[in-house]
């Protein structure tokens, strides 16, 4: 039995009171877990996107899924959970990670990058509308690809100069780059196409539509 930290990417109900949990871990990369007793010993709220949990892991000789027990939250993330906009961003980020990071893949530094960004988003009180674009660019680096403007340009078209500002800026500066909701949506989609091309996989992220609708409905995201 090993004690591990994990970041929730996706959870699927299994039977009456079990969940198949797909998570990102520091030690094993993306890994699948069976969690039993959900609703009795374990609260279903633990499996919200990008929750950071601590758990005991028991490997199985009969299944590729390990068993996760005694799950507890490491951080409350109330800054995220009390914000519709931030929750939408965690849905987007977790879905991207779920579709891009393959089971058993362990990219060194990926867990730490994700944890740092989750806590950063949680702590922010305003000016986080560009967060998901910054995250995609950091993910590109962690996956081993280059976010240099000349490499991204063929995918970005008219947005190449704007994304170049992100690449050359510090985080606080990047959050203040003025963008409309339509521009954010377009840039995120094009960065996903870049990731799709280099990972040779289909990255069909449904939650981008939710973010797009929020961008159009509010001037504060």
User: What sequence of helices (H) and strands (E) makes up the elements?
Assistant: EEEEEHHHHHHHHH
Number of strands: 5
Alpha-carbon distance between the termini? Answer: 43 Å
Going across the major beta sheet, what is the strand order? 1-2-3-5-4
How many domains make up the 3D coordinates? 2
Q: Could you say which overall geometry the principal axes of the C-alpha atoms support?
A: globular
Helix content: 40-55%
Radius of gyration: 18 Å
What does this 3D model show about the protein?
With 221 residues, the protein is α+β, with helices and mostly antiparallel strands. It has 2 domains: 2-73, Nucleic acid-binding proteins (OB fold (Dihydrolipoamide Acetyltransferase, E2P), Beta Barrel); 78-217, no CATH class. It has 9 helices and 5 strands; from the N terminus they run βββββααααααααα. It has a 5-stranded mixed β-barrel with strand order 1-2-3-5-4. A hairpin with a 3-residue loop joins strand 1 (2-14) and strand 2.
How do the helices and strands line up, and which of them pair or pack?
Blueprint (H helix, E strand, L loop, with lengths): L1 E13 L3 E8 L3 E8 L15 E7 L7 E8 L4 H4 L2 H17 L9 H14 L7 H12 L6 H8 L3 H9 L2 H4 L6 H19 L7 H11 L4
Attribute tags:
five-stranded mixed beta barrel; alpha+beta; OB fold (Dihydrolipoamide Acetyltransferase, E2P); 221 residues; 44% helix; 2 domains; 5 strands
């Amino acid at each position: 039995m090993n004690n591990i930290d994990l970041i929730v990417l996706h959870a699927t109900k299994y039977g009456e009171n079990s969940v198949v949990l797909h998570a990102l871990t520091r030690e094993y990369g993306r890994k699948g877990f069976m969690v039993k007793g959900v609703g009795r010993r374990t609260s279903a709220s633990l499996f919200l996107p990008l929750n950071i949990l601590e758990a005991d892991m028991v490997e199985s000789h009969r299944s590729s899924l390990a068993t996760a027990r005694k799950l507890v939250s490491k951080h409350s993330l109330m800054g995220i959970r009390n914000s519709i906009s931030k929750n939408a961003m965690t849905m987007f980020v977790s879905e991207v990670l779920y579709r891009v990071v393959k089971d058993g893949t362990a990219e060194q530094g990926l867990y730490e990058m994700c944890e740092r960004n989750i806590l950063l988003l949680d702590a922010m009180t305003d000016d986080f509308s560009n967060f998901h674009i910054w995250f995609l660019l950091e993910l590109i680096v962690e996956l081993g690809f280059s976010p240099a403007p000349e490499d991204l340009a063929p995918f970005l078209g008219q947005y190449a100069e704007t994304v170049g500002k992100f690449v050359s800026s510090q985080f606080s500066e990047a959050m203040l780059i003025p963008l409309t909701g339509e521009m954010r949506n377009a840039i995120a989609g094009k960065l996903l196409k870049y990731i799709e091309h280099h990972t040779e996989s289909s990255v069909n992220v449904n939650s981008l539509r939710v973010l797009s609708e929020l961008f159009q409905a509010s001037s504060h995201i």
